[in-house]
Specification:
binds zinc ion; 3 helices; mainly beta; Immunoglobulin-like; Glucose Permease (Domain IIA)
Length: about 280
Amino acid sequence: MRAPSFHRRAVLLGAAGLALDALPAWASADGHAWPMASAVPGGVAHVPLGPASQRPAALAGELPLLVLGDPAGWTALVGIPLAAEPGEARIAVPVDGGAPRELAYRVAPKRYAEQRLKVAPRTVDLSPDDLARFERERDHQQRVIATFSEPLPTTLRMRVPTPGRRSSSFGLRRLFNGQGRNPHSGMDIAAPQGAPVVAPLAGRVIDTGDYFFNGQTVWLDHGGGLLSMVCHLSAIAVRVGDAVPAGARLGAVGATGRVTGPHLHWGVMLNRAMVDPALFIDG
Ligand code: ZN
């Protein structure tokens, strides 16, 4: 799928006699832009903010948004939570000494697949110890994902962190014995134990650990509230604080955490919403 807003922009720029390379750096020369615009739960909305001499700030509720572009036109890239209700949503652009400017965009409905599984009750219910551990880890992760740093990313076009068959299970809703779980919030890549896992985009390592559900995990901060995570690793090759270029080795594919076999789980987060990694890569 292409990004219509950027097609339009490319056409407008073309009509004005400007070369297509006048597109912002984060859009590629042929008018595509990563992430692709997909204003659905679990997608990314491109909300144009118009021209301004300086990069404007933009907020979704209290959360700062990633704003990219140049003085000819800025765009807020808004990660839309999987739990978002379809319909009108708003962002705000603070205005010096005045009421913030509100901008509306539409979240279109998207129906994700549902999977009903019957399993032995003890594999669904956590023991009190496991539950306590999970809650500790969840609180820790809340602190990790609050990261919003500069510099902002110069491109958002990611590489797939490991080669292999990519599932399209993002957003899949799983029900165990009729009980709903959080939807699947990343991309699963089938890859053998030990296969190298690389950074999808340049970034800084902001967390590593071995977690109950996610197993051995690395979180990267790419700037501007864009984060990515790789999970279930058999080995971790980086440390918190490391700056890594795109393609740098982060670790190796494994089966740690709550999984049935080796694979890579890859998550991408924007303004604290897990969004579909497929929007950030070539089809
Ligand atoms: Zn997964």
